[in-house]
Design a protein that fits this description.
The structure holds 2 protein chains of 2 kinds. Chain A is an all-alpha fold. Chain A has 16 helices and no strands. Classes of the chains: A mainly alpha, B mainly alpha. The interface between A and B is large, with 80 and 72 residues.
């Protein structure tokens, strides 16, 4: 078929990979997409509830119960599974060896599915670990998830130890370190002894922030350090910048969780440290973004003609923008206006979607056809890209404007209810953006089906050139 | 000593640095914070209020309602700035990160009416036009007529079910008792704009 107007090129290589691994990667992606569609449908419901509060007003579909179901299923279901799907290829490939154990990876997928399914049911029933963002699953459920993470950690460490190349490629620094940091983080977040009263809020700042920044950020960055040079067929601009970003990410990011509790009763010095190192975060962020953009320099035509690279370009740009936005949000003077408002919700979606999900999609569209020999419709990929992009744009802009109005209402000492009614049009716009985002996920699911692996014994054809 | 070829060194360092920073910024300060004594006049929750608090947690109230008053002019209507000692009996913590609804640190003083809370929980829009809070109707029963020991909720106007009375369940009453318990005891040097609570009962 092809689409001459867009002028996208088809893949020109097939990677001869173990069919069992390809099928496992695909299985991870399918489950990830199941959680994506489930959780973003709930996201849309939540959004609509702010315009129509009595919509679907059962206890188990009420706002306060569905919100953590939405966030956790996207964190531990969609994003974690999709990232690891790609890691299952990248870690062995950059180590020039086979994955240490397919069986372990299979087991871990089921541990994660069980954890997210059980967590979802428990939250719908009102069983939670406190309303503490991203650690709402009760500990026995989160323990299953963490055990799955340990299985991956062990599997990837063994793979790297069995590498047939002297150096440990930078992707594996990020991916394996992220698993180490996040299992530590979950342990610290769930041990009870130092979590009474306000002390728990201090742990909450540390936990909620790094649930994002020491898990999703390093893993997708690590993946991009492989996919971007691979798809562009040129080396990364600067390997050393990647190393610099790695260490500065570790030192700076760990210290900034308390910027979610500016002006609270948490000790002032912890808040100040959080603000100072939030500024420091500009070093790893722009080292990473700059490195990616400079790797792309002069290759804009290749990117324009690819259907996977535009996702990676968008993800890299969003990474720089959203992190800079995050630094600005941490200041005390910006907290006067933006803290507690919907501006923060816009920021978090900009991160998990514009940055993390786009980099994942870039990897999936680039890798999967090379593994299965089956390509999606280029038009359908284009529709996915633009629905996601425009949907997210509407979402983030609406909540950024609305959030600023909310904060300004409070500063101007208007009656509180004004800050609610003033949000009405922006919440409606957010639902419009959210609808586009949700539709793009349905299209992604269809594209994923089109890229499915061949049945055993089915021959892989020669790649047809466009 | 080469990070690029030695996984033990590379990942050992990444782990070690993370653990040290975690202790410095999260765990050790937390241990110190939880030794803060309770604010004078702060009372532990009654058994029923504690049950109400569990419902507050179960329903995810703190996704929209914070319990932290900042030392800022726009927060003065919510009470005095929160102090570390205010949270001594508060586990899990409910500080919250959003104010889609108002802060509740001092709601027990700001809105002392049982009936108001019960009607508002049954249907927020019966009392506050433009509210987007969920209606927690499942903590209420609709009956043909109330029994002697029932707490009847006088739902006004069109929000009231026709020909029935709305009765609060023990859970609704527990939740309201918890909301009543949210009273900031005055600090020794009261912040401006603060209302005197009934702090020293004993």
């Amino acid at each position: 078929m092809g689409s001459p107007a867009i002028g996208k090129v088809r893949i020109e290589e097939i990677i001869g990979e173990d069919p069992a691994l390809v099928r496992l990667i695909y299985k991870y992606l399918v489950w990830a997409t199941v959680w994506l569609i489930f959780a973003t449908a709930l996201g849309l419901l939540l959004s609509l509830k702010l315009s129509y509060p009595d919509l679907l007003d059962f206890s188990f579909t009420s706002y306060g119960r569905v919100r953590p179901i939405h966030t956790n299923a996207l964190f531990w279901g969609w994003t974690s599974m999709a990232m690891v799907a790609l890691c299952l290829f990248v870690v062995p490939r950059t180590s020039r060896t086979q994955l240490h154990s397919l069986t372990l990876a299979r087991v871990a997928l089921w541990m994660w599915n069980v954890a997210v399914a059980a967590g979802t049911v428990a939250l719908a029933m009102g069983i939670n670990n406190g309303d503490q963002e991203y650690r709402e699953y009760v500990w026995p459920i989160m323990a299953i998830f963490a055990a799955g993470m340990l299985v991956h950690l062990y599997n990837f460490l063994c793979t790297v130890r069995e590498r047939e190349i002297e150096e440990i490629y930078i992707s594996n620094w990020y991916i394996i370190a992220a698993l180490i940091w996040t299992t530590t983080l979950v342990t610290v977040g769930y041990l009870p002894w130092y979590q009474h009263g306000l002390a728990q809020a201090n742990i909450q700042g540390y936990y909620m922030h790094q649930g994002v920044g020491m898990w999703f950020t390093p893993v997708v960055l690590g993946l991009t350090y492989y996919f971007l040079p691979k798809f562009l067929n040129r080396p990364i601009y600067s390997y050393s910048l990647g190393v610099l970003a790695f260490w500065t990410q570790l030192v700076f990011y760990t210290l900034i969780g308390a910027h979610h509790f500016i002006f609270s009763a948490i000790p002032w010095w912890i808040q100040t440290i959080a603000i100072v190192f939030s500024v420091g975060m500009m070093v790893p962020v722009w080292a990473g973004t700059g490195n990616f953009i400079l790797t792309m320099r002069g290759k804009w035509r290749t990117i324009g003609r690819s259907y996977s690279l535009p996702f990676i370009l968008a993800g890299a740009v969003c990474y720089g923008l959203v992190s800079t936005q995050g630094t600005f949000e941490s200041f005390r003077w910006t907290n006067l206006y933006w803290h507690f408002t919907n501006f923060t919700i816009g920021h978090s979606h900009f991160t998990m979607y514009g940055f993390v999900a786009f980099l994942i999609w870039g990897g999936v569209y680039g890798l999967l056809p090379r593994l299965t020999g089956r390509e999606p419709s280029i038009v359908a990929v284009g529709v996915h890209f633009w629905f996601s992009m425009i949907g997210m744009g509407i979402y983030v802009v609406a909540l950024s404007i609305g959030g600023t109005i909310q904060g300004t209402d409070w500063v101007r000492l208007r009656p509180f209810i004004d800050s609610v009614t003033d949000m009405a049009p922006y919440w409606l716009w957010r639902s419009v953006g959210g609808t586009l985002m949700f539709l793009s996920h349905v299209i992604f699911a269809y594209n994923l089906y089109k890229m499915r692996p061949r049945a055993l014994g089915e021959a892989v054809p020669e790649v047809a050139r466009a | 000593m080469n990070f690029h070829v030695n996984p033990r060194l590379l990942f050992g360092t990444a782990f070690g640095v993370f653990v040290i920073l975690t202790l410095m910024i999260a765990v050790l300060p937390a241990i110190q914070i939880q030794q803060t004594p309770a604010t004078p006049g702060l009372e532990p929750l009654s058994e029923r209020a504690a049950r109400g608090r569990d419902i507050y947690v179960r329903e995810g109230c703190s996704y929209c309602h914070s319990q932290q008053v900042r030392p800022l002019p726009q927060d003065e209507l919510f009470g005095r700035p929160s102090a570390p000692g205010d949270y001594v009996y508060e586990t899990p913590q409910l500080l919250g990160t959003a104010r889609t609804g108002p802060d509740l640190s001092n709601i027990g003083n700001r809105q002392p009416s049982d009936i108001w809370h019960l009607i508002h929980l049954y249907n927020p829009r019966a009392l506050v036009q433009g509210s987007v809070m969920p209606a927690y109707w499942w903590y209420f029963r609709k009956k043909d007529r109330a029994d002697a020991d029932d707490v009847v909720v006088p739902v006004p106007g069109s929000s009231a079910p026709k020909g029935k009375v709305v009765v609060a369940t023990p859970e609704a009453l527990a939740l309201v008792e918890y909301l009543h318990s949210l009273k900031q005891p005055p600090l020794e040097v009261p912040a401006s704009g603060e209302e005197q609570g009934e702090a020293s009962k004993q």
